[in-house]
Amino acid sequence: MVKLIVGLGNPGPAYDKTRHNAGFWFVDRLASAHACVLREESRFHGRVGTIEAAEPIYLMEPLTFMNRSGLAVAAIARFYKIAPEHVLVVHDELDFEPGVVRIKRDGGHGGHNGLRDIMARLGSGKFMRLRIGIGRPVGPMAVADYVLAAPSAVDRQAIFGAIEKAAGCLPELLAGNVDQAMNRLHV
Fold this sequence. Notes:
The structure is a single chain. By secondary structure, the protein is an alpha/beta fold. The protein has one domain: Rossmann fold. The protein has helices spanning about 20-35, 70-80, 115-120, 145, 155-165, 170-175, 180-185, and strands at about 5, 40, 45-50, 55-60, 85-95, 100-105, 130-135. It has a 7-stranded mixed sheet, sandwiched between helices. Helix 1 packs across helix 5 and helix 2 (about 70-80) packs parallel to helix 3 (about 115-120). It is globular. The two termini are about 20 Å apart. It comes from Methylococcus geothermalis. InterPro entries: Pept_tRNA_hydro, Pept_tRNA_hydro_CS, Pept_tRNA_hydro_sf.
């Protein structure tokens, strides 16, 4: 069962519209749908809110910048005694085209620095991932420049379509029915 949903991104208006903030976009979507206000919590190094369900579900956007996301995730997980298995990390995924969204139970970081830091700080890679496709750069553009740029209007529409699709699977995820959520998303 998911008890903490962390959207990865970079804080500040310079990054609001960049591909790397797909995780923030997802958490913003959930917060809006559930009338949840995300408030800055310095002890957790991020913005935090709660969705009321059978038990509280915490939403978080780390304010530590992507490469230090683990600092925020570890702080809130330890405070609320949330095991890695009950954490869902939402992040941008270069290996999927815009519009594709997938759930992964655990695994490595795949070169994603935010995931790398979370794994190091939690001491585990056994958290779930919701991977939102952003595609790869075409031509000589560096990956860092690509993820820190805004997507085209067409790609943005596809990314937000994937976010809507994933948000529709939230009831299954909160109930611990990960296989059902995967079946809905992976078609």
